Amino acid sequence: MRKKIIAANWKMNMTVSETESFWEVFSLEVGETPSAEIVIAPPFTALQKLGDLTSNTQKVKLGAQNMHFETSGAFTGEISPSMLRELFVRYVILGHSERRQLFGETDKLVNQKITAALKSELRVILCVGETLQERDEGKELVVLEKQLRASLAGFSEIDFEDIVIAYEPVWAIGTGRNATPEQAQEAHASVRSVLKELAGDEMAEKIRIQYGGSVKPDNARELLSQPDIDGALVGGASLDPRSFSQIVRAAEPEVS
Length: 256
Ligand code: PGA
What we know:
Layout: E1 5-9, H1 16-29, E2 37-41, H2 47-53, E3 60-64, H3 81-86, E4 91-94, H4 97-103, H5 107-119, E5 123-128, H6 132-136, H7 140-151, E6 163-167, H8 181-199, H9 201-206, E7 209-212, H10 217-224, E8 231-234, H11 241-250
Parallel strand pairs: 1-2, 1-8, 2-3, 3-4, 4-5, 5-6, 6-7, 7-8
Helix pairs in contact: 1-11, 5-7, 7-8, 10-11
This protein binds 2-phosphoglycolic acid.
C-alpha cells in the first residue's frame, strides 16, 4: 500500500503573517492523526515561520517550490539545497510547469536539480504534464515519457525511494478544469509503466504519483480513489486552510 501524499504548492502567495493565520486554522481542522503524508511548500520567505509553527508536530513536512543545483556561489536570487536543509525542508518541488514555461527550465536542468536534491537528502516532487495542444494531438503519453526519461536519467533504483512524481496536465492548472478521474488514471498508469523501465517493477510499485491541476474538496475523493493516484499536488485550493484540510481528509480510506 502506498501512503497517500497531499502537498500544498502555495506558489507566490502567502506572507509570513498569512502563514500564521493559515496554520491557526489548519492545525485544528486537520485533526491529530491524518492518514496521509502532508507537505506544505510556502514561498521561501515563509519557510522559517512555517517550520517554527510546525516544529512540535509530525503532521506536516516542509517543502520548497524550487532550488538551484549548486551548493553556493554567484547565483543572484537563487536558493541552494543546503539552505533548505538548514530550515528542515524535507521535499522540493522540481520541474513545475510554471518553472518550465515562464522561466525556461528544461528537462536537463530539472535532472541536475534532482541530482543535487538527492545528494542533499531532500526528497523530490517531480512535476510532469502535457499542454492542451499536446493532448489535443493525442501526444500526452509520449510527452510524459519523454519528460520522465530525461528528468530521471542516470538514477539508480534506490534513488527512486526519495522521488514522488506529480502528474499535472498544464491545461488543468489554475483553470478550474481538472482532468477526469479516468484521464488522470490513464496518465498515471502510463507514468508507472515508464517508471518500471527506469526503476524496476518492484520499486515502481512503491513510487507515489500525485495528481495536480484544479484539485478541490469536491473532486478530490474521486480522483484519489483511482488505483494509481497516490496523492494530490494542490495549488489554489491549498491557500484556504479549510479546503486544504478537506482535501487531506478525502485521502482517508472510506469507512463502509
Ligand atoms: P492548481 O495548481 O491546484 O491551482 O490547479 C496546481 C499546481 O500548479 O501544482
